[in-house]
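Severity: low
Component: inverse-folding endpoint
Summary: output formatting inconsistent between runs
Steps to reproduce: submit the following structure tokens with default settings.
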């Protein structure tokens, strides 16, 4: 398979992953599926790991990878393959951006999973007290303490599930972008196709 075609496959794979990450981050603004005041939303949600890191910053590499298959650069210095090789080289820079964005999302998600959600831990007739009742990921191995979160209903599983998806999606995105770095380097050094031809 030519490197341009392979990069297009990577781009096609990255697009749905980016969309899933954006949707997960948006859903995290509604703990337990319920609208709450912005002060009661878990802090890490506001870091926009899924929207910016694995979303917006991943769209650019994905679009670049998709365009490499039909890159008909005119070449340079009389060498028709030069333009394509330069395009593959530039794709490495965009892949690096993708790795950085996905890495940011992974870090934010890991911290959020470790700290747990913000939720109602005590109530009176007039006031609901919000806090982050877990520490150092203790709730991950002890489901019994999930009951510390009184409201919103199901907020712990909501928080854990969505941030886990963001974590896994981010790791997959990092791997795909890293593969494109290798693919781009091989294309620059050996030409666009493994068989020695630069035709796409």
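Observed output (run 2 of 3):
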């Amino acid at each position: 398979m030519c490197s341009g075609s392979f990069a297009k496959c990577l781009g096609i794979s990255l697009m749905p992953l980016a969309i899933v990450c954006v949707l997960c981050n948006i859903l995290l603004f509604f703990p337990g599926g319920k609208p709450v005041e912005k002060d009661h939303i878990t802090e890490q949600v506001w870091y926009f790991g899924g929207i910016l890191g694995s979303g917006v910053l991943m769209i650019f590499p994905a679009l670049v990878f998709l365009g490499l298959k039909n890159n008909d650069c005119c070449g340079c210095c009389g060498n028709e393959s030069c333009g394509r090789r330069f395009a593959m080289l530039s794709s490495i820079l965009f892949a690096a951006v993708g790795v950085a964005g996905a890495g940011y999302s992974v870090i934010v998600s890991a911290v959020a999973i470790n700290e747990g959600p913000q939720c109602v831990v005590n109530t009176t007739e007039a006031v609901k007290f919000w806090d982050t009742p877990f520490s150092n990921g203790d709730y991950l191995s002890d489901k019994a303490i999930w009951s510390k979160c009184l409201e919103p209903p199901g907020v712990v599983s909501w928080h854990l599930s969505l941030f886990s998806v963001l974590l896994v999606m981010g790791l997959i995105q990092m791997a795909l972008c890293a593969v494109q770095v290798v693919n781009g380097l091989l294309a620059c050094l050996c030409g666009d196709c493994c068989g020695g031809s630069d035709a796409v």
